[in-house]
C-alpha cells in the first residue's frame, strides 16, 4: 500500500510508510518499529537539564574576539611616558654629541694637572701603603702649580675608580720614577681593551664620557661589541642590582652607548638592538608580575659628571635605564612591537 493512502499519525503528524496491519509485513519489522515509536514517545524533543550548568552570556557584536587581559599600571605608564622620554633622550643626546669634550692626548699642562689632582686624591686617603704610598712618594717631586699654569682656573675631579685603575696599571708596569708615571698615564686610552674581561674592567674603572667614543677606545665597531656584552651579560647586573655601584656604572654606560649609536642601521644591527630590547622587556615584565619589585636604578641617580657639567635636561621622574632603552629601540629604531604588552600571560 502506498504511503499516500495512509492517514496522518495523530502524534507525530506524519504518514506511515506502510500499513502495520498488513499480514505481508514481517513481524520482526513491526516489532522494531513499535519499539522505536515507544522510545520516541518517552523522549522529550527538548532537554533543559544542562542549561543551568553553563554560564549565562549576552550576545555581543565582538563575540568572535578574544577578551583582552588587563595590563598592569607600570606597563601602561611606559606607553604614556614614551613622548616625554624620547624628547628627553633626543635633547640629552644632542647636547652630549655637540658639546661633549672630544678625545685628546695629554699635553704637558693637562698632564701636570692630572698628576696634581692624583696627588691630592692620594693625600686624602688614610693609611696608604705599598704601591699607593710609592706613587705618592713619586708625586712629591712635582713642581708646584701657579696661576700661569692655569692650575687655579681649571677644575678637575679625579674619579676614584680611575685612580684605583691607574694605581693597578702603575703596579703592573713597575713604575720607578716620575717620568715613568707620566708615560704610564699618557699611554692610557691609546689602546682599546680586548675581550669581555678587559672591557668589563675598563667600564667599571672609567666613568663614561663622550671623549671615549671619539678617540681610539670606542669606535663604530666596538660600540656594537659593547651593546652585545650589555645584552648578554651586563643587563642582568643592572636588573638584579647585586652590587649597586657596579649596576649604576653599567647603567650610565648603557645610556652613553645609546647616545652614540647611529640612527640608521642595517638589518644585522637591528637584530642586535632587538635582542637587547627583548632582554629589557623580559626584566620589565618580571618586575610587573611581582607584588613588590626592587626599586630600579633611576636615571637621575646615574647621570655622568659630564652630563651634570653640561647641564643636560633632568631625566623624567621615575625613569630608569631599562625602560628608556626599550623605548628608544621601539621608537627610534622602529621596533614598536616590543612595547606591545598583550598576550604575555600577565
From TrEMBL:
<dbReference type="InterPro" id="IPR035426">
    <property type="entry name" value="Gemin2/Brr1"/>
</dbReference>
<protein>
    <recommendedName>
        <fullName>Pre-mRNA-splicing factor BRR1</fullName>
    </recommendedName>
</protein>
<dbReference type="Pfam" id="PF04938">
    <property type="entry name" value="SIP1"/>
</dbReference>
<dbReference type="GO" id="GO:0000387">
    <property type="term" value="P:spliceosomal snRNP assembly"/>
</dbReference>
<dbReference type="InterPro" id="IPR023251">
    <property type="entry name" value="Brr1"/>
</dbReference>
<dbReference type="GO" id="GO:0030532">
    <property type="term" value="C:small nuclear ribonucleoprotein complex"/>
</dbReference>
Amino acid at each position: 500500500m502506498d504511503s499516500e493512502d495512509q492517514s496522518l499519525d495523530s502524534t507525530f503528524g506524519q504518514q506511515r510508510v506502510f500499513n502495520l496491519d498488513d499480514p505481508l509485513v514481517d513481524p520482526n519489522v513491526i516489532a522494531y518499529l513499535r519499539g522505536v515509536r515507544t522510545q520516541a514517545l518517552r523522549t522529550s524533543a527538548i532537554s533543559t537539564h544542562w542549561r543551568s550548568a553553563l554560564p549565562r552570556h549576552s550576545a555581543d557584536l565582538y563575540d568572535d574576539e578574544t577578551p583582552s587581559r588587563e595590563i598592569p599600571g607600570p606597563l601602561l605608564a611606559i606607553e604614556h611616558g614614551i613622548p616625554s622620554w624620547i624628547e628627553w633622550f633626543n635633547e640629552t643626546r644632542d647636547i652630549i654629541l655637540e658639546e661633549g669634550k672630544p678625545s685628546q692626548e695629554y699635553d704637558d699642562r693637562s698632564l701636570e694637572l692630572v698628576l696634581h689632582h692624583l696627588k691630592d686624591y692620594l693625600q686624602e686617603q688614610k693609611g696608604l701603603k705599598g704601591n699607593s704610598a710609592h706613587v705618592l712618594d713619586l708625586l712629591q717631586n712635582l713642581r708646584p702649580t701657579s696661576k700661569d699654569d692655569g692650575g687655579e682656573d681649571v677644575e678637575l675631579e679625579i674619579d676614584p675608580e680611575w685612580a684605583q685603575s691607574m694605581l693597578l696599571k702603575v703596579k703592573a708596569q713597575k713604575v720607578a720614577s716620575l717620568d715613568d708615571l707620566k708615560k704610564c698615564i699618557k699611554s692610557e686610552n691609546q689602546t682599546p681593551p680586548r675581550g669581555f674581561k678587559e672591557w668589563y674592567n675598563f667600564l667599571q674603572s672609567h666613568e663614561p664620557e663622550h671623549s671615549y667614543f671619539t678617540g681610539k677606545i670606542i669606535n663604530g665597531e666596538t660600540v656594537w661589541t659593547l651593546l652585545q656584552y650589555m645584552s648578554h651579560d651586563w643587563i642582568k647586573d643592572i636588573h638584579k642590582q647585586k652590587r649597586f655601584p657596579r649596576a649604576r656604572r653599567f647603567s650610565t654606560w648603557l645610556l652613553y652607548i645609546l647616545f652614540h649609536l647611529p640612527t640608521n642601521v642595517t638589518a644585522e644591527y637591528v637584530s642586535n638592538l632587538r635582542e637587547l630590547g627583548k632582554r629589557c622587556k623580559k626584566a620589565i615584565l618580571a618586575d610587573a608580575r611581582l607584588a613588590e619589585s626592587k626599586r630600579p636604578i633611576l636615571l637621575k641617580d646615574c647621570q655622568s659628571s659630564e652630563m651634570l657639567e653640561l647641564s643636560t635636561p633632568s631625566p623624567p621622574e621615575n625613569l630608569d635605564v631599562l625602560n628608556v632603552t626599550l623605548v628608544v629601540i621601539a621608537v627610534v629604531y622602529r621596533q614598536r612591537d616590543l612595547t606591545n604588552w598583550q598576550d604575555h600571560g600577565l
